[in-house]
Design brief:
Elements (H helix, E strand, L loop, with lengths): L2 E3 L9 E4 L9 E5 H7 L12 E2 L2 E5 L5 E5 L2 E5 L4 E4 L5 E3 L8 E5 L6 H6 L1 H4 L6 E2 L3 H18 L7 H19 L15 H13 L6 H8 L3 H12 L3 H18 L5 H7 L5 H12 L3 H9 L15
Helix pairs in contact: 4-5, 6-7, 6-8, 7-8, 10-11
């Protein structure tokens, strides 16, 4: 079993932690789409169940087409494309059909800090979920993914330290090449205090249930004042503003793309009752949740570039 499934509370999307097979070292697992589905033929797509993960899913599609819901929008990756689900994204599996290709699962901490900084635009929550590499890079990327798969399967052939160093080197090389795919922002983001970067990572995982600056400061092991100063230096906004913005973004997605009721969204985002959520939503958008949802229904359903239907 590759992930540790936690039972969700009512109206909450479950969070999955990284739990590779016994003997797999250092927060990185490599398999194939076909192997993964063969080993999990009754989970989590029969029936489909939305969930979130604390780690990255990266799939290179070499045959067939693979559809996957990312933040309530169905994305379709064709041969030569890569599907990337980042930590904190709400996702939902579709039956794989005839899709084939390497499947890489890794925790953010696997990347060395200097490499992680270079990859910040690619690993950001709002980076594209479907990547189409430059034609000159496509074959190299596929071969590197297969080499990573081969090295992952070679556990025991070399000393453990060398084995992991090779896996990490191959993964980082692959990601650095993917970072120059069309559609990925190339501008180096402004250097943000480390406290702020860590806060954003925690926010993606906990914005549904943690809504106070003090809760994040406790997770970070710093004072509220330190966290507030880091947020203002990086964004010009307060911690509460950033938390509210993330909750509002999720509310819009769920009311519009996913068609959830205001009551379900309120429970999902940790509001005490629907009235509190309604006041929050109206204050930030000028519309009641029901009015916003009705307006969205009249618009064209959200799809990805390949024309896939809307959300799970």
């Amino acid at each position: 079993m590759m992930v540790n499934r936690r039972q969700p509370e009512e109206d909450r999307v479950p969070l999955y932690g990284f739990q590779p097979p016994v003997g797999t070292p250092f927060g990185l697992e490599v398999t194939t789409v076909e192997t993964f589905f063969a080993q999990h033929d009754d989970w989590p797509w029969n029936p489909p169940v939305p969930g979130r993960a604390t780690f990255h899913y990266l799939i290179a599609v070499t045959e067939g087409e693979l559809s996957h819901d990312v933040d309530h929008v169905t994305r379709t990756a064709a041969p030569g494309q890569w599907l990337w689900v980042r930590p904190g994204h709400t996702q939902c599996w579709h039956p794989p059909g005839d899709a084939r290709g390497p499947f890489i699962l890794f925790e953010p901490e696997v990347l060395r800090p200097d490499i992680a900084r270079l990859l910040a635009p690619l690993t950001a929550h709002d980076a594209p979920p479907v990547l189409t590499p430059h034609p000159d890079d496509a074959a190299w990327l596929q071969q590197t993914a297969l080499q990573l798969l081969d090295e992952h399967r070679a556990l025991g052939r070399r000393p453990l330290g060398a084995h992991h160093a090779l896996r990490r080197s191959l993964l980082e090389s692959l990601l650095l090449r993917l970072a120059y795919s069309p559609g990925v922002p190339q501008a180096t983001p402004p250097a943000a205090p480390n406290t702020h970067r860590r806060f954003l990572d925690l926010l993606e995982l906990h914005f549904r249930e943690k809504h106070r600056a003090s809760e994040y400061a406790q997770l970070l092991g710093c004072s509220v004042r330190t966290l507030s100063r880091a947020a203002r230096q990086a964004t010009g906004k307060g911690v509460r503003d950033l938390i509210d913005e993330r909750r509002l973004l999720e509310a819009r997605r769920l009311l519009g793309n996913a068609g959830w009721s205001a009551r379900a969204v309120a429970a999902h985002l940790g509001f005490g009752d629907t009235s509190n959520f309604g006041r929050f939503f109206r204050r930030h958008t000028g519309l009641a949740p029901a009015a916003y949802a009705a307006r969205e229904v009249t618009d064209r359903p959200v799809t990805d570039d390949s024309g896939g239907p809307g959300a799970c």
